[in-house]
Inverse folding.
């Protein structure tokens, strides 16, 4: 049954290509689901939970909320200048654990990554003056060490592209206690950093090809769009990697333009 589901999901040609890649790399096809706060990453991941061939790794928020009784996420939001360094250090540790976690399936979907932690969130703290230059230097050196010395698998990035005002309203509606003090300006700044990293390629290398989804739709509507296009999205993911000249060198910067995918349109 599992083999049949896998064949239906990816198509015979993609499956054969994947198995050749899997035999060489001995690892799952790895997708990072990236986007701003409130962009619908958890909704996207949950949509694929019913597939037996996919392992989902959600952002370890509960670990950030309870480190031996300490809510580091809450401390960081309330006093970022004091707790930003501590919080981002722990984020690096927990994200590295997710990257290294073995999975029993041929596909692995991760909510965010070490790369967005560094290129978006740590970068924002540095630019806004939240981090002392010495603190930023330590976090940056730690990131460089991890990415240079430890192989971080990356085959595809799904970017849930949103408008800051839309996700700001979502954040207020979901009423996560730690996020109640988040201003719209913070969301706008994070949006710019995601765009500069994944779309404009201004300030950091992109470790994998990028698929862009319009995630401004209402979450109830976008779930239906994911349902309509799930097979095409995943098959396209494999095809993109198979045709990428960088597929065997995930640390090499990707210079090709992001692939624009409109949810309402069929993916061929």
């Amino acid at each position: 049954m599992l083999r049949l589901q896998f064949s239906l999901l990816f198509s015979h040609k993609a499956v054969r290509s994947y198995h050749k890649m899997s035999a060489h790399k001995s690892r799952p096809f790895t997708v990072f689901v990236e986007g701003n706060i409130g962009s619908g990453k958890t909704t996207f991941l949950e949509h694929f939970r019913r597939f037996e061939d996919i392992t989902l790794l959600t952002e370890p928020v509960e670990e950030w909320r309870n480190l031996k009784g300490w809510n580091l996420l809450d401390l960081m939001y309330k006093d970022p200048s004091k707790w930003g360094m501590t919080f981002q250090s722990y984020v690096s540790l927990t994200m590295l654990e997710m990257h290294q976690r073995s999975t029993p399936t041929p596909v692995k979907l991760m909510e965010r990554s070490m790369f967005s932690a560094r290129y978006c969130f740590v970068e924002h703290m540095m630019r806004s003056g939240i981090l002392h230059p010495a603190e930023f230097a330590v976090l940056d050196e730690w990131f460089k060490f991890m990415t240079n010395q430890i192989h971080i698998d990356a085959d595809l990035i799904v970017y849930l592209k949103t408008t800051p005002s839309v996700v700001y309203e979502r954040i207020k509606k979901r009423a996560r206690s730690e996020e109640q003090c988040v201003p719209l300006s913070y969301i706008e700044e994070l949006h710019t950093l995601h765009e500069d990293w994944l779309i404009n390629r201004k300030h950091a290398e992109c470790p994998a090809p990028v698929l862009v989804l319009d995630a401004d739709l209402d979450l109830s509507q976008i779930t239906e769009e994911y349902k309509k296009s799930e097979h095409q999205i995943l098959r396209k993911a494999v095809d993109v990697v198979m045709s990428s000249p960088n597929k065997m060198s995930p640390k090499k910067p990707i210079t090709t333009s992001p692939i624009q995918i409109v949810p309402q349109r069929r993916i061929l």
Remarks:
- The chain is about 55% helix and 10% strand.
- Strands lie at 29-35, 54-57, 107-111, 156-161, 210-214, 259-261.
- The longest helix spans residues 219-243.
